[in-house]
Design a protein that fits this description.
mainly alpha; single chain; elongated
Length: about 170
């Protein structure tokens, strides 16, 4: 599938609603209890908020500005553990929704063309990347964390599904 901003937005705008539908109002038994190696849904939503604030649109701005320094600020993949302290999942879902709406308004307002999508920035670990690659990664990143949320929740019953385990690929 060829990348298109409009089609990317179709997924990006749905992620907050998808996570809200999955998580809002369910008990902490389903959404908490993760750690730095096995993120709980609570941690995942915090991570997605941090990405909205420091990753996708800020890095896209660096690329679009084409200034002297096109190197991205390194992303702290564990910042959510500190930033989410003392908040409820409901508050995090609201924050994510607000942040994502703002990000998508910016993305739409840019009205990007093919030439802009080919502009390059410098990832601190991966090297040169295009704006198109960054935006495509944003979509796949969302889908990865939706899958991760589902897997974390499914594993809560991994010991109780009995012989059906072999038919439940999410548990493998």
């Amino acid at each position: 599938m060829k990348f298109a901003v409009g089609e990317a937005i179709e997924v990006l705008e749905r992620t907050p609603r998808t996570l809200r539908a999955m998580l809002d109002g369910v008990s902490d038994e389903w959404t908490g209890g993760g750690d730095r190696e096995d993120w709980a849904p609570f941690d995942i939503v915090g991570h997605l908020i941090h990405g909205e604030l420091t990753d996708w649109i800020p890095r896209a701005k660096i690329i679009l500005d084409q200034g002297e320094n096109k190197t991205f600020v390194p992303f702290d993949r564990w910042a959510q553990f500190e930033l989410s302290k003392g908040k409820t999942l409901g508050v995090l879902l609201d924050e994510f929704d607000e942040c994502r709406r703002a990000s998508l308004r910016t993305l739409v307002d840019w009205n990007l063309n093919g030439e802009q999508l080919r502009l390059k920035g410098m990832h601190p670990e991966l090297g040169e990347v295009t704006l198109e690659q960054l935006l495509a990664t944003w979509v796949v990143h969302d889908l990865t964390h939706i899958r991760q949320t589902s897997q974390f929740m499914a594993r809560k019953y991994s010991d109780t599904v009995g012989p059906w385990t072999e038919y439940l690929s999410i548990l493998k």
